Fold this sequence. Notes:
about 190 residues, globular
Amino acid sequence: VAGLSHFDAGLVLLRGHLVDAVSTPCVGVGTDRCVSRYGRRKIWHLMGVAAAGVALPFVFRLPFDLLAAQRELKLGYYLICVSAFQMGWAAQQTTHLALVPELSADQDERVVLNSLRYAASILSTMAVYVVAWVLLKSGGGTEDFSAAGSSSSGAWQQPTGSTFSTLALLVTGAGMLTSLTFHCGLTETRA
């Protein structure tokens, strides 16, 4: 949809993983040393939500016509957006995991908290797949790419950029709502 070559798409993914690998320990050290009236973990989580919430829609929605842009401009755009998203994602995940031992001294409660966190992660991933399936099935484009011999009534449509933009905006909105609930509902004890 974006017109990246296979090699460039691989570079973008590699860069994202490298940024995540560097960001995660940096966030861990940063949250351990942070002093904030809002909470040393929650302030980092909030910054991560902001970074990921701004970056994710830009990964799937081109702010200008990048399809006709030079390779370097297009590649640079995606490298920046994916890097910003990965830094925000690392901040969110690291702070969630670091909060669990601070919320409870009881080992059984910690197991329950981690289990609930993991279950919510699985359910939200499944919800994204269902929404993506609905968007793709509803005709995100006009070109039929169904398997040979299948009926045209159940044919899938070639997705367009707007299909993925819609998905990214829905996911970002849901993430922002759950993050708002997290920030309003949790009081972090001062270390």
